[in-house]
Amino acid sequence: MKGEPSSPPEVEAFEQGREPLLVTRLEAHARRAGPGTRRAGGGFAHGYAVVVLLTAGRSRVEHKGALELRPGDVHVIPPGDAHSGARFEGAEGWGLAFWPEQSGHSLRLFSQVRGGCHPVLRPSAARRRRLERWLRALEEESSSREEGRDEALAALLRLVLLELLRASAATLLPGTEGTSVARRALAIVEARALRPLSLSDVARAVGRTPAHVATVVRSETGRTVGEWILAQRMAEARRRLRATGGSVEAIAGQVGYADVTHFIRQFRRVHGRTPAQWRRGQGHDPGRAHRPGRRVGPT
């Protein structure tokens, strides 16, 4: 929007999928509006997961009801969950955002919250110290461009998520609200997006009409069901492009596209470049590794 300050380069790189995660200090985050898709009724919803660890001060936010975070609390926000902007009061701590493809099996933590569990964890003092250590290391590694950076980021993120999974076993309690239609719909999208899936399929799975599901999901998240399906497929496509040597055609089929041309068109619409161009931008070109001496043409 005209007149709004532009996002810092690291935020733009993350939002465009060029960086797998984003680590911020709450002190800095409090001075600028957070990224996300604003819903029609106000608030935000975004396609990535967020973890907030508060170490000092307090934070007030609307997410499945009114929440007040105090030092030591961890706020877990699944992809697509609607929430207000946080109101910080002398807050210090960490914010960690990452795309779903980075979480692996630890996405179960976010599924539990989406399924109705309370979104605030209260880990032990020892676990909080470990979380702070991993988050500080993530911050340092994010600003580095040394060899093995992506592998180090992935390993540190796994450590953070493992700590949260262990903490959730002791502190993740059922919430006071029932699971909303939108959250149930997003859970279906998350589980089935890599197979043929339509709005009608999602509506049938949650026991509502397509029109009702479409309205509720758009109202609560600011995105359509189709946009959430696309986001899930693009997240998995990025993971496979970054971590495997599979061909673009093979990856298209693995993320739900029978037509590779349609996949390339969708990927370019979201990322501004083709899958092969995006992959080369990550410093990974499987063509050179598997076919030495042959020139690889653009996809």
Protein model, in words:
Helix content is 47%, strand content 15%. By secondary structure, the chain is an alpha+beta fold. Strands 1, 4, 5, 6, 7 and 8 form a 6-stranded antiparallel β-sheet that branches. It has a two-stranded antiparallel ribbon with strand order 2-3. It starts with 8 loop residues before the first helix and ends in a 9-residue tail after the last helix.
Keywords:
299 residues, alpha+beta, Jelly Rolls, Arc Repressor Mutant, subunit A, globular
Largest sheet: 6 strands, antiparallel
Mean pLDDT: 83
Secondary structure tally: strands: 8
CATH topology of the largest domain: Jelly Rolls
CATH architecture identity of the largest domain: Sandwich
Brief digest:
Helix content is 47%, strand content 15%. The protein has 299 residues and is of the alpha+beta class.
Architecture blueprint of SSEs:
Elements: H1 9-15, E1 21-25, H2 26-29, E2 37-38, E3 44-45, E4 49-62, E5 66-69, E6 74-77, E7 87-98, H3 107-114, E8 120-121, H4 125-142, H5 149-171, H6 181-192, H7 199-206, H8 210-221, H9 225-243, H10 248-254, H11 260-271, H12 275-281, H13 286-290
Antiparallel strand pairs: 1-7, 2-3, 4-5, 4-6, 4-7, 6-8
Helix pairs in contact: 4-5, 6-7, 6-8, 6-9, 7-8, 9-12
